[in-house]
Amino acid sequence: MIQNVYVSSHPLLEHKLSILRDERTGTREFREVLKEVTMLLGYEATRDLPTEDIEVKTPVATCTCKKLSGRKLVLVPILRAGIGMVDGFLQLLPSAKVGHIGLSRNEETLEPIEYYAKVPNELDKRNVIVVDPMLATGGSAVAALTKLKERGAKNLRLVCLVAAPAGVEAVQKAHPEVPIYLAALDEKLNEKGYIVPGLGDAGDRIFGTL
Ligand code: PRP
Ligand code: URA
């Protein structure tokens, strides 16, 4: 494990990730399994959220229990493919606020181009989770994290399904304090900037635009 990078080895996650990688998996199944994988990954990525004590009266006795503390958390999918991870996260955190950052990679330069940004207020007081299935060169994630810091975010984490070593390095260089949660750290990028073996173009597989 590289410092600040958590790669889950949960068997359910590994099993479901194999389905997402498989080129025969169609759009409908891809979406469903992505949601399930996101819930499993979200469980890992929220392990250290702060809690506070509350008194709960059960049918038998009163006891001290825990509830999540602090302001509502913010989920920020990087459009488009990040949208595929929103439902899974909202199953775990139904009250979360949701911001959106629209970034598209220039297919030749691989540089991210921002086309949309709308985020909730008071980001400085909230935990912010950025979600995107793919961390390839890292350009999109670095740009999204930079944007969120400009809007005040201080407590950020990044959750992706599949990463290439180059993407992890880019995020760690630009935002070393941001923890990265992954289902898999793959081998490399190919000449077109795709993760190898990866799962192809995540946006196309989620939205059926192949
Ligand atoms: C994909 C993916 C990431 C980005 C990763 O988005 O969803 O946002 O590429 O690549 P990077 O780490 O090299 O920046 P894409 O730009 O294809 O847009 P889409 O989600 O709209 O398909
Ligand atoms: N974006 C994707 O959707 N897939 C990759 O492999 C790389 C970037």
The largest sheet, given as strand count, sense and whether it forms a barrel, is:
9 strands, mixed
Distance between the termini: 34 Å
Count of runs of 4 or more consecutive helical residues:
6
How would you name the oligomeric state of the polypeptide chains in this document?
Answer: single chain
Shape: globular
Helix content: 25-40%
Name the structural class. Answer: alpha/beta
State Rg.
17 Å
Say which molecules are bound, naming each kind only once.
Answer: 1-O-pyrophosphono-5-O-phosphono-alpha-D-ribofuranose, uracil
Question: Kindly state the mean pLDDT as a whole number?
Answer: 96
Order of helices and strands: EHHEEEHEEEEEHEHEEEH
Q: What is the beta-strand fraction?
A: 25-35%
Number of E-state strands = 13
Q: Which consecutive residue ranges, at least 5 long each, have pLDDT under 50?
A: none
Descriptive report:
The chain is globular and about 60 Å long. Strand 9 (134-135), helix 4 and strand 10 form a beta-alpha-beta unit. By secondary structure, it is α/β, with parallel strands linked by helices. It is built from 6 helices and 13 strands. 1-O-pyrophosphono-5-O-phosphono-alpha-D-ribofuranose binds at residues 78, 80-81, 103-105, 110, 112, 132-141, 167, 193, 201-203.
What distinguishing features does this structure have?
single chain, binds 1-O-pyrophosphono-5-O-phosphono-alpha-D-ribofuranose, 210 residues, binds uracil, globular, two-stranded antiparallel sheet, alpha/beta
Can I get a quick summary?
This protein has 210 residues and is an alpha/beta fold. It is 31% helix and 30% strand. The strands form three sheets. Strands 1, 4, 5, 6, 7, 8, 9, 10 and 11 form a nine-stranded mixed sheet that branches. A two-stranded antiparallel ribbon has the order 2-3.
